[in-house]
User: Fold these one by one.
Assistant:
Number 1:
Amino acid sequence: MPLSYLHYDVFTVKPLLGNQLAVFTDARGLDTAHMQAIAREMNFSESTFILPNERPDTDIRMRIFTPFNEMPMAGHPTIGSTFALAHSGVIKRSAKRFVFGLNIGPTPVDLEWADEGLSFGWMTQRPPTFGPIVSQRAAVADALGLKAEDLSDTLPVQEVSCGVPYLVVALRDHAAVDRAVTDSAGFGRLCAECGLDLPIFLFSVGGPSPDDNVYGRMFAPDFGIIEDPATGSAAGPVGCYVVHHGAVNADPARPIQISQGVAMGRPSRIHVSVEGAGKDITGVKVGGTAILVGRGELLV
């Protein structure tokens, strides 16, 4: 039976940039094994599968898969699928909010509209959880193909989660971010030494544009993602991290802007709105745009 999908580029306003996403708009009849196999076939960072809602406080059920595993939640799949459902008419133009049923539970997306249709989506993420600070800085640097002195002198290496945990690594400058490499063996050594088997978001403060607050990259080889051009589930934790540690101020009128994917030739921009300041963060939203670049069918 033909299985239709929409192909979006997410966290960009231009095609062939940002992060690719396949949205299967009617996944009824597919079991978990089929969804995982299809995500592996598509070989994007993630693919989403839309199903009827399973509880009354959600509008729709969505499952998210990387090529290797199912995710509890993710940012670029949620934003991209919001645009896909608006394009297909599932989300009506009058809607101000749409609630996805994800594996972590109800996940709202606030909607902004323009004359041509949906123009922006703001995904609510969980308040941040700040995990352990990693003291093995040399091991962290080695896993990234860097030296310990490439790490920031003032910001810690720390686990942070807004639904999906990441190891957040602050580097000295943009050049160090660009020099980093993704190495599965290095990640294995780091896991053995630190006991943390997490995707890594590495960054420096600032970015290519004067409006950028963070310039980053994300490596997750254990998820089948060598490098990700835009990671919404990491953007919330990173935004909270830089506010929590005083590297960037939280300003509701000017959301934090993260530049990612530059090293891959797929520049992306992710917006993060953090409520509260310092150690008193009460809410976080991750926002962005998406553009339709293709559609097709799988014969499976």
Number 2:
Amino acid sequence: MNLRYLLLFSLFTTLMLVACGDDEGPVAELPVYDDTPYVLSYGSLPEPQLPTDNQLTEQKVLLGRMLFHETMLSKDDSQACASCHLQTDGFSDPNRFSVGVEGLPGHRQAMSVFNMAWHTNAFFWDGRSTLLRDQALKPIEDPLEMNETLENVITKLSDSKMYRDQFVRAYDSEEVTEEKMALALEQFMLSIVSNQSKYDRYLAGEEALTESEERGRILFQTEYNPFFPESSGADCAHCHGGKNFENDQYMNNGLDTDADFTDLGREMVTQNAADRAKFKVPSLRNVAITAPYMHDGRFQTLEQVVDHYNEGIRNSSTVDPTVENTRESGLFLTPQDKIDLINFLHTLTDEVMMNEPAYQSPF
């Protein structure tokens, strides 16, 4: 009887302990450092020169994605990087100038942040940040943008268990630092790839261009020829060439005369008068969804952009010779030529990137 009693008592005690354990809920798993490499898929684009001191991992890219969509980076917790770089708008801002947390507009149009891995000539319109990691933190402290201090951001993130855990997974330490934030944001932006447009499918032999798009493609790639206007092209590829449709240069594209310069552009960084009113040449991928256009967002439509190059070039001391050569005669584009050229530009829209879940908010 005593043995039976002891067995029953032991079983009862065990059941009670199990029941109590269930009431307390499952034991939370501790975060574990994970350096699994992130595999960057870039298709037919050339192999990018990724930073050797910031090799992509799945957890660092995820941390960067979290930070990119995190409103705690701003003074009043209302804005994130993604607020002015909208995925549905090619990671740009449909507003001419982004409005910061203080209700103040910026001075330049927000640039797109896709295919950053193929930009090798610094960042921002004037190239003031040599590395993408340097660019990543500047909007946080800009009084016209997030208007927050990095110290406050670190405090806010450090108070979040979710972020402390993710820093452990990414860096094997829950300590939040400026450097780790910058490197993670760099990694996420490097992971944003646009290479699945209709034009990419055309190059792969998977889809045909319409007659108008094909005429536009030929115009885009054909050089300007003042001696034979009937065979002259739009000469776009000089500045927007290669698979990423840019040239990693800073150029003055004839928007204003010297007397009308209001933004000195690259000169503010180099202190070289030869760089006056020169700006980074952007990629034309997704150009149909990244209006408004130019560094100051002065053009709302692609039609206005084409008209500028066809008949609106203005002379100045630093205008690029390639653009200046077309100023007197224009590009000889007919109304149909303009339609065809714009139809081709629409084939550069990457709807896959616009809807890619891996770039969306993780929250």
